[in-house]
Amino acid sequence: MSRPSLQALGDASFARSEHVSAELLALTYGSFVRQLVQDYESPSDVNAQLESIGYNMGVRLVDDFLAKSNISHCSSLAKTAEVIAKVAFKMFLGVSATVGVWSQDKKTFGIVFDDNPLAEFAELPEECAGLWYSNVLCGVIRGALEMVNMKVECRFERCRLRGDECNEIRVSLHEILVEQPPKGED
């Protein structure tokens, strides 16, 4: 019996998950980002807040993801990248993503997606030119991967709200974290 493809696994995980209206999500998220823009002086401060909030979400979401997706340990960064793009993006956002261009050292890859439900009704005014509106996604990826022992940096490379043809998040692996027993417990 053959194993289902990652795309099929993502579709099945999405079908089993509880859903929130995409419009409600987009409007709620938009209101949240607007409030952050009002509360912080610069777009870079808002970007940092969104990434931090996303990180905390990712730390918690990874357990839900592993339990509901039936994904076992990924044996490589390439496999991890495919799981994020084909299963996690489908399961949590309902969108399909692909793994984009890899760096020569195979430690950096892109996650490319056309549809972004967070930005469905959004427009960036000129004063928010430095804002990465969906930066919360970078934090979610970073937090989730840290919980499975991968220290990464995530950043938006392209965004449709900025006039790009697609959305792309670049993920760079910095180190594989080794679990250490607590001091005194050898």
Automatic annotation (TrEMBL):
Keywords: Endoplasmic reticulum, ER-Golgi transport, Golgi apparatus, Transport. One of its GO terms (biological process) is Golgi vesicle transport. One of its GO terms (cellular component) is endoplasmic reticulum. The keyword Transport applies. Its main location: endoplasmic reticulum. The keyword Flavoprotein does not apply. Transmembrane segments: none annotated. Gene3D superfamilies: Trafficking protein particle complex subunit 3. May play a role in vesicular transport from endoplasmic reticulum to Golgi. Homodimer. Belongs to the TRAPP small subunits family. BET3 subfamily. This is Trafficking protein particle complex subunit. It comes from Chondrus crispus (Carrageen Irish moss). The lineage of its organism: Eukaryota, Rhodophyta, Florideophyceae, Rhodymeniophycidae, Gigartinales.
